[in-house]
Amino acid sequence: MGYIRITEENIDAEHICCAMSNRQSERKKEWLRERFREGLVFYRSEERGKCFIEYIPAENAWQPLDADGYMHINCLWVSGSLKGHGYSSDLLNECVRDAKEQGKRGLCILSSAKKKGFLADPKYLKYKDFAVADESDVGIRLYYLPFREGEEPPRFRDCAKHPRVTESGFALYYSDQCPFTYYWVPRLAAAAGEHGVPLTVIHIDSREAAQNAPSPVTNFSLFRDGQFLTHEILSEKKFLALAGIR
Predict the structure, then answer these.
(1) What's the pTM value of the predicted model, to 2 decimals?
(2) Distance CA 228, CA 34 (A)
């Protein structure tokens, strides 16, 4: 199967794999347009479906990392009928080739001890010789694949390694990097308002804010009374269940 690179020149005409609707797609495309000039690369399969990789120099990643010289993979996602055909390896190999050509020290990517939604599968990463570089207090791990022996591993910044916030009640930090937040965040805010659940919503709208965010997962991070709860993008029903409303 062939692959298409999404660029500023063709993004208006091409679909992106990770959106559920045109409005979500447009919000994500707006975010991508700004990132292309910072070195972001987005490849997807020619066949429609969730089969793509998105990566960017770690200095420009919307993650609170100290990973200068590394290439950060925002997302590597192959699902549905496209799984099991080696497409993940195709996409990862292209990222490795590109990163080496740019003289990068290696790759890094977020995952966890066990598979979590919207994060890379740790079993797959280990199979591809990634190792754990760092781990946050909430179990999110930073994996890396160095290209040379002796490379200093990338690290989480303290704000991500020890997630805490000062807001009381629920606090939701999110960005437009994941198009699913465009759909779900307003629904959670509306549900909270309807049921009198205290919820502060913080939109991470710049690279600087993302690199100093209070969680390693900047797409969606939910806290309660300062404590981290989850990075899983929740439905209204799941959110209200956390608030004790059935």
Answers:
(1) 0.94
(2) 29
